[in-house]
Amino acid sequence: MSKRIDVSGLHVYYGDFLAVEDVSMTIEPRSVTAFIGSSGCGKSTFLRTLNRMHEVTPGARVQGKVMLDDQDIYAPEVDPVAVRREIGMVFQRPNPFPTMSIYDNVIAGARLNNQRMPKARADELVERSLRGANLWDEVKDRLNRPGAGLSGGQQQRLCIARAIAVEPAVLLMDEPCSALDPISTLAIEDLISQLKENYTIVIVTHNMQQAARVSDVTAFFNLAGTGKPGKLIEMGETNKIFTKPDKKETENYITGRFG
Amino acid sequence: MTTTDSSTTARIPRGKRRLGDVVFANGARGSGVLILAILAGVAAFLIGQSYDSLSANTANFFTTSEWAANVREEPAFGVAALAFGTILAAAIALLVATPVAIGIALFIVYYAPRRLAAVLGYVVDLLAAIPSVVYGLWGIGWLVGQLGPFYLLLERYLGWIPLFAGPVSTTGRTMLTVGLVLAVMILPIITAMTRDVFQQVPQAHREAALALGATRWEMIRMAVLPFGRPGIIGGAMLGLGRALGETMAVAMILSPSLVVSWALLQSGNQTIAAHIALQYPEATGYGVSALIAAGLVLFAITLVVNMVARFVVARRKEFS
Ligand SMILES: Nc1ncnc2c1ncn2[C@@H]1O[C@H](COP(=O)(O)OP(=O)(O)OP(=O)(O)O)[C@@H](O)[C@H]1O
Ligand SMILES: [Mg+2]
């Protein structure tokens, strides 16, 4: 179920602007990988190229290779839609479909693959996904209420339930807690620790403690300078990155000294 | 000393109402009241003026189709055929125009290359501004002639449906032609409204669908259409309002007769607005008052249609 991602020599452009330069990394299955780095260094941009979501942005394009286990996701015959079913995404702001009930939100992605899902199977999938997102007990009595009526933290867990209902191999999360209070943040962090049993997880975060708490591996990105592209500076065991990183740049960023 | 001092100075000053706020609030309230007053005034006028003929009417106003109102006593008239024709023409227009408008709007917003989309958007806005007489001229001068063969085909293959029963009118001046011309007339306004709401669908919703592995069409079904629903209904109602009240195009195209007929390919039927326009110059006796009674019915139909639309939009409000 969970798969390895192998990136080699990836450049990302917005039109002529090179936003991310020459990233190579391996993301192991059944682990949590955190991306950290200053604002604008291309973490979101890079993350979105891992499931070809960047193609939604006009002008965005990549050079290089991304392998999901032994499949090249940028091979000409590969459909980006199929890639996204395999590699799910959770966004910074919770974005449940406002016109749908909690139940329909959870089932929305799964219905795409299987239009005629019998009611019993759908019920079962909704319950399993909501339990998987630690949300079931809070919403089981109001599954037909609108998803937008939940609190921010609940909405974000609803979005996670919706993403895992499609049964992807990889889950990408772009600052999933930045719009949430500390309690909801902890709930999501607990959830991430559980989810890594079954999924490859990549999370972008500005919160160092969060990266230290949830991730096994940390990747540090930085800008070479204003107007220059972002680069992967260093990647390694989270413990090591936070205690004795190889690069001076990483240490400065971790300890809060920039420059 | 200091304590008394601070207790007086620390008081938060009473809020002053600024002049701009007062003017704006009263202006807004005034406009609201004015609208209601005009609406009530129009209704009162229509009721007052139609009372004469309605009380003298010897036929049932709602179930009669004939129109013998231009007399000094014992008028006999009713709006059955007129109301039926009005609703039928508007319904055809709406049924034809709405899906096409949604298609065009989706194309402009989500499929067309940017340059083409800009041109199309401009053309749509332009079409919406063309006066209805021009559409009427186009309908009678060109469209009527083109539809003949198409109507014959409809009758040959779908003639067993009462709507398309023969014999096909040889002039082409039928209810279906009227409906189609009205559809073309209201197409731009519905397209413009739906295009606007489609453009407002938040990127977050669209990306949510795409990230689940939705194709572009699935994304539209999942995120765009549900979000745009109130806007689509609003646009359709605006179009319906125009179609219900449209006078010139109908009066120019249709060869009228006061019957209740479902046969769209035969000549016949008439709408309230066109009937008023055609009859008014020759109205004598109870005629004018009777026409105003017909106008009252049109007024009521429009109100009901709008209320139903509002109800439909509001029913699922908590989901949007
Ligand atoms: N749609 C876009 N079009 C053009 N340039 C973009 C676009 N999105 C991002 N960029 C540019 O790409 C660079 C990387 O942006 P990105 O959003 O990936 O940074 P980030 O590391 O995620 O920052 P943050 O931590 O603030 O979210 C920035 O210079 C940004 O201006
Ligand atoms: Mg970002």
Structural class determined from secondary elements of chain A: alpha/beta
Q: Can you tell me the CATH architecture of chain B? A: Orthogonal Bundle
Strand order within the widest beta sheet of chain A: 6-7-8-3-9-10
Structural class of chain B: mainly alpha
Rg of chain A computed from alpha carbons, rounded to a whole number of angstroms? 18 Å
**Beta fraction of chain B:** under 5%
Question: Which shape of chain A, going by the Cα principal axes?
Answer: globular
> How far apart are the first and last residues' alpha carbons of chain A, in Å?
42 Å
Bound molecules: adenosine-5'-triphosphate, magnesium ion
Taken from the alpha-carbon principal axes, the silhouette of chain B is flat
Average predicted local confidence, pLDDT of chain A: 92
- Estimate the mean pLDDT confidence of chain B: 88
The CATH superfamily of chain B turns out to be MetI-like
Largest interface: A-B, 30 and 23 residues
Membrane topology (chain B): Multi-pass membrane protein
GO cellular component, one term (chain B): plasma membrane
Pfam family, one (chain B): BPD_transp_1
Domain ABC transmembrane type-1 (chain B): 83-309
